[in-house]
Write a structure and sequence with these properties.
The protein has 265 residues and is of the alpha+beta class. The protein has five helices and 13 strands. It has a six-stranded antiparallel beta barrel. A three-stranded antiparallel β-sheet has the order 7-11-12, covered by helices on one side. The chain has a two-stranded antiparallel ribbon with strand order 8-13.
């Protein structure tokens, strides 16, 4: 698995797409099957390039690329606005590394790889930690998923561990579904209905997502919550422990100074 970004120091990267090079701003996601890059585009805008490395012996990258490309084509042709806009694909995408890169030659993605280009959406994932899930967001997400299902596309990857996934809440108040590498095209109505019902369950008032998000929102709304008061005694104990440990050092230091002045010999 190629390393694209060190833990604390991002490396300088460019991506070559159809003969032109674009600067990589950030590595959004890195998995064995795909790598998602945010790149600088024209006029201070950004786009997303999702690259499928040809490193998987089972050729999962090939299915992911073909399925996702086909799904986004259908969504684009239908002018579907609840997903990122599809800007095309390329079979010869590669990364351009700086001369001082520490990545081993065998791990570099310098040969041609299949990739798709998508619109960059300004927003955040819908997860409890981002404090952006509400029943209104759920309603918009369900309507958006229904629009996708009407085109015969079953997303195939909308949840993980009781939480919704691959859903964004945008800065303009809209929502968008993304990541269609596990989707099914022209799926049967039963599968589409099941996924719609599953999404409704995952985002209902009784869902784990809603309850967790509501708890976090209530905690953030309180200026000084009860659990923070419980932590106060521990803070006081730590403070006085540190103070007591410092006082003898200062007394000892002062005593030495007096001793040196009194008994110079």
């Amino acid at each position: 698995m190629p390393i694209l970004q060190l833990k604390r120091r991002p490396i300088s990267l460019k991506v070559e797409w159809k003969g032109k090079q674009y600067t990589v701003v950030r590595v959004l996601q890195q998995r064995p099957i795909s790598i998602v890059l945010l790149v600088e585009w024209a006029n201070d805008t950004y786009r997303v390039i999702k690259l499928y490395p040809k490193r998987d012996e089972r050729h999962l990258y090939k299915r992911g690329f073909e399925v996702e490309r086909k799904a986004y084509r259908i969504l684009r042709d239908a002018r579907c606005k609840v997903v990122p806009w599809y800007h095309g694909s390329c079979h010869s995408t590669k990364l351009v590394y700086p001369p001082d890169t520490t990545i081993l030659p065998e791990d570099r993605l310098c040969e041609g790889h299949p990739a798709i280009m998508l619109e960059y959406l300004d927003g955040d994932l819908v997860i409890p930690d981002n404090n952006n899930f509400t029943l209104l967001v759920a309603q918009k997400a369900l309507e958006a998923l229904h629009d996708i299902h009407k085109l015969g596309i079953c997303h195939g990857d909308i949840y993980d561990n009781r939480l919704i996934r691959n859903l964004m809440f945008l800065k303009n108040g809209k929502v968008a579904w993304f990541d269609f590498e596990h989707s099914e095209i022209n799926d049967e109505q039963d599968a589409l209905s099941f996924e719609q019902g599953l999404a409704e369950e995952l985002m209902s008032e009784n869902s784990y997502l809603y309850k967790t998000a509501k708890t976090k929102q209530e905690q953030n709304a309180r200026p000084f919550s009860f659990d923070r008061w419980l932590a106060l005694p521990y803070v006081v104990v730590i403070f006085f422990t540190m103070l007591i440990s410092v006082i003898p050092i200062r007394l000892m230091t002062a005593s030495n100074i007096v001793q040196d002045m009194t008994y110079p010999g």
